[in-house]
Known about the structure:
Blueprint: H1 29-36, E1 40-41, E2 46-47, E3 54-60, E4 63-68, H2 78-90, E5 97-102, H3 115-121
Parallel strand pairs: 4-5
Antiparallel strand pairs: 1-2, 3-4
Amino acid sequence: xxxxxxxxxxxxxxxxxxxxxxxxxxxxxxxxxxxxxxxxxxxxxxxxxxxxxxxxxxxxxxxxxxxxxxxxxxxxxxxxxxxxxxxxxxxxxxxxxxxxxxxxxxxxxxxxxxxxxxxxxxxx
Length: 124
């Protein structure tokens, strides 16, 4: 099926064509963490970094791999949060490929909150 003229076809996983975006400086972990701070858990109102949901982050050139969790295995906003992580990274010009894996071990606990996350949730 062809996309309407002027519109790219929609896909669930985006990979840039070889060489696209290469003129942009390569991303690093700090840049990716700042981008991820734009993704919030809608129920808690705290971003995924300050909630401590990001367990592992690997950046190689324009490829980003993330191992993350959610606050509960039955989280009704699973797709919204994980989709938000993918979208915010895929929009960045220095990122060509995004792989997000959700894991349940180790289980998330409030001890994973950053100081900013603790403050936002009223933990002292």
